[in-house]
TrEMBL record:
This protein's UniProt keywords: Membrane, Transmembrane, Transmembrane helix
Transmembrane segments: 361-381, 388-409, 421-439
MF annotations from Gene Ontology: adenylate cyclase activity
Family matches, as InterPro entries: A/G_cyclase, Adenylyl/Guanylyl_Cyclase_3/4, CHASE2, Nucleotide_cyclase
Species name: Halochromatium glycolicum
PROSITE patterns, A to Z: GUANYLATE_CYCLASE_2 (PS50125)
Sequence ranges assigned to domain Guanylate cyclase in this UniProt record: 480-612
Pfam families given in the database record: CHASE2 (PF05226), Guanylate_cyc (PF00211)
Highest taxon above the source species: Bacteria
Name used for this protein in its record: Guanylate cyclase domain-containing protein
GO BP, sorted A to Z: cAMP biosynthetic process; intracellular signal transduction
Keyword Transmembrane helix (UniProt): yes
Length: 723
């Protein structure tokens, strides 16, 4: 029992949700789809924050390419290039040659020398690999390393590397203190278990030692350089950081690590009085300068005294191998391939400038906020305006986000990703635009199917372009109506053959419909020979009354001409009676949920129908209510019929009928107006005036009607037509 109740409860909830969805207006679907797309995109960015990392890196590369660094730092690369190997001998060079190179850089005035390479030691004094785990010989037995002697003569830094395998378990020495403070123990994600070390004497006698490690991104490009590396629990500075420390004369490093995930929480590295912001991996973002912007000199020219005397004066010399096939050159965001010496030289120049690109910890949250705000703003705009407004707004927001991202980089060196917000806004725009287009097409086809039989082509085209003007749920609106009926239609049906009657009636209706659509009227319905026409619904027409009166006059002319043609052909075709009225009605779809029947309900329709029928009583072909005439901006010449007392109406309806062209050319308007005024004011000569008018115009049925009323003893302009 309990399970059954739960099942029924869930079923009712599902049915309720389904009914709610089905009640949604089509215009709300783009908004809901836009919100759904925005929510999914934001959730994906939160769940997979690095999914677009490659694209983010390309954007940052574009920033650097658009504004590469400009450097004037006193840093020079002493390059062991192809020319040096050709002139001085192949690599590896013996210690004596490297020592001579260090001595010559000192003689040329270099303030600091750094070796961005890892030499090793062998017994004959050449450079080779040694067993890093072998016991150290006694100082007396250990040969003197000429490279170590040269390094000891000036401030110098030796390079080493940490590695995953193939190295030594020995830790490199630290020549400066390194303290870690903060709310967490620092554990860099790239901790390495082994080291590749230069000869011990050179490493000990140098003023500093720094890691040469670089970690390119998966696409092979280098964008960040670790200023801190970790072997076990010990932290070590990079070569660039160690040279910078010697340049500042600092004796220690201070590392501050905040609580949080290592990849997201920044680290600050203090060297002397300089504080450098690092990411959670201990890396600094590099703002590369073009390779040609950094001075370089061939090692061979230094060794052979071919360099200018001031080539290295008061400058920092970074010695490294740049010859092809030796070492690894890594691509920069500028598309150039750089050797380790060039990379550390660029990093050192950036450290000396004090300006570093950085990506703050709040960057991802800010990008997510911008994406959400942009998407919501676009959805809000779509609720108000679509089409060109949506295109301009979407393109403007995407352009603004991209421009703001580059502006923040160029002025503040902030690395904020505009791509995620731009993609989010673009996808939301595409969803809004595509769903709006599909719904618009659906509405257009639906309107065409539903109203093609009832509207003129021009009005139908307008409605398909502006379906929002069609309101099916119901509303009160002032409209004008025309009702027509064919006199003598029943006898005509009885006398005619079916095929002939159908053809005759269709030809007659075609004439009327042509006139109706020419005045942009809406065909409400056709019942036999009777036609009902509506103006100002479904499309609002401010001049609906004028259109209705003009259409009625044109219908009368067309119907009278058709009847004349038929009678001349021997067909007893009657005249068409027309009633016109204006009033407030309720319009909407009254066909249920499965059938469209856009109709109007109200007293105005009944009044128009009774005015049409009243033509039989007063002898006219057209009766127009005073309410319709009063709303015409250019009323046709008309004469009053009187105040008609209609069934169901508390007050009489003032009615008028137009003069024909022949009547306007005669004296009928003057005589009729004089007689009608007398009747209106209950003057005793009213009957005599109508008698005279009827005698002069015996074919005027309306004059004869009033004469007979007055003969019967009636007075005034109000009378009942029995309808």
């Amino acid at each position: 029992m309990i399970r059954a109740r739960r099942y029924r409860g869930r079923r009712h909830q599902t049915q309720g949700l389904y009914r709610t969805i089905m009640r949604l207006r089509l215009s709300q679907i783009p908004t809901l789809l836009g919100l759904l797309a925005l929510g999914l995109l934001l959730a994906a960015q939160i769940r997979f924050p690095n999914a677009m990392g490659w694209a983010r890196h390309l954007v940052f590369d574009a920033y650097i390419a658009a504004g590469p660094a400009v450097t004037d730092a006193p840093v020079t690369v002493v390059s062991i290039d192809e020319a040096s190997l050709t002139r001085e001998g192949p690599w590896p060079w013996p210690p004596a040659r490297l020592a001579a190179l260090v001595d010559r850089t000192r003689d040329l005035g270099a303030s600091i020398v750094a070796l961005a390479l890892i030499p090793s030691e062998r017994g004959d004094g050449a450079l080779t690999a040694a067993d890093p785990n072998a016991a150290s010989p006694t100082p007396a037995a250990q040969p003197v390393d000429p490279l170590a002697v040269s390094l000891a003569r000036l401030p110098s830094v030796m390079g080493f590397a940490l590695t995953h395998s193939g190295g030594s378990a020995l830790h490199p020495p630290r020549h400066a203190g390194l303290a870690t403070v903060g709310e967490r123990d620092l554990r860099l994600p790239g901790r390495l278990p082994a080291s590749l070390l230069p000869p011990a004497q050179a490493l000990e006698l140098a003023a500093g030692a720094g890691a040469l490690n670089v970690f390119p991104d998966p696409d092979g490009r280098l964008r960040r350089l670790p200023l801190l590396v970790q072997m076990g629990d010990a932290l070590y500075p990079s070569l660039a950081a160690e040279v910078f420390r010697l340049r500042l004369g600092a004796g220690s490093y201070l590392v501050r690590a905040q609580r949080g995930q290592a990849a997201e929480t920044p680290i600050t590295l203090k060297i002397g009085d300089r504080t450098i912001r690092l990411n959670g991996n201990g890396e600094v973002w590099l703002h590369f300068a073009p390779r040609a912007a950094l001075p370089r000199i061939s090692a061979s020219r230094v060794l052979r005294d071919e360099a200018e005397d001031d080539a290295l004066r008061a400058r920092i010399a970074i010695i490294g191998v740049e010859a092809a096939g030796i070492g690894t050159a890594i691509a920069s965001p500028l598309g150039e391939r750089l050797a380790p010496a060039e990379i550390h030289a660029q990093a050192l120049a950036q450290l000396m400038s004090g300006v570093h690109p950085w990506r703050p910890a709040w960057a991802a949250g800010a990008e997510l906020t911008v994406a959400a705000a942009g998407g919501l703003l676009l959805i809000g705009i779509a609720l108000w305006r679509r089409g060109l407004w949506l295109v301009v707004t979407g393109a403007g927001m995407v352009g603004s986000v991209i421009a703001a991202g580059y502006l923040l980089f160029s002025t503040q060196r902030l690395l904020l990703d505009p791509l995620s917000p731009a993609i989010t806004i673009t996808v939301v725009y595409v969803v809004l635009a595509l769903s709006s287009y599909l719904i618009s097409e659906h509405e257009r086809r639906w309107v065409q199917r539903a109203f093609a039989r009832y509207l003129s082509p021009a009005l139908l085209q307008h409605l398909t372009r502006h379906p929002e003007q069609l309101k099916l749920s119901g509303e009160r609106r002032e409209c004008s109506f025309i009702m027509t009926d064919l006199a003598g239609f029943t006898p005509l049906v009885e006398q005619s053959e079916p095929e002939a009657l159908v053809d005759l009636l269709n030809r007659y209706l075609d004439r009327l419909l042509e006139v109706i659509f020419a005045h942009q009227g809406t065909l409400d319905r056709i019942v036999g020979d009777a036609v009902s026409v509506r103006f100002s619904a479904p499309v609002h027409q401010p001049d609906h009354a004028q259109r209705a009166v003009d259409c009625a006059l044109a219908l009368d002319h067309a119907a009278h001409a058709f009847a004349t043609e038929m009678r001349q052909a021997g067909v007893p075709f009657g005249e068409t009676r027309i009633g016109v009225h204006t009033g407030e009605v309720i319009v909407g779809n009254f066909g249920g949920s499965r059938h469209l029947d856009y109709r109007a309900f109200g007293d105005a329709i009944n009044t128009a129908a009774r005015l049409e029928t009243a033509n039989k009583v007063v002898g006219t072909r057209i009766i127009v209510s005073a309410d319709a005439c009063a709303r015409c901006t250019e009323p046709a010449p008309m004469r009053p019929i009187g105040d008609l007392l209609l069934k169901g109406k508390a007050h009489p309806v003032a009615a008028l009928t137009p003069f024909s062209a022949d009547e306007r050319a005669s004296e009928l308007p003057r005589d009729y107006e004089r007689a009608y005024r007398a009747m209106q004011h209950l003057e005793p000569n009213a009957r005599a005036l109508f008698e005279t008018c009827a005698a002069r115009f015996p074919d005027d049925a309306l004059t004869r009607f009033h004469r007979e009323r007055l003969r019967a003893g009636e007075q005034g302009t109000a009378f009942s037509v029995g309808l």
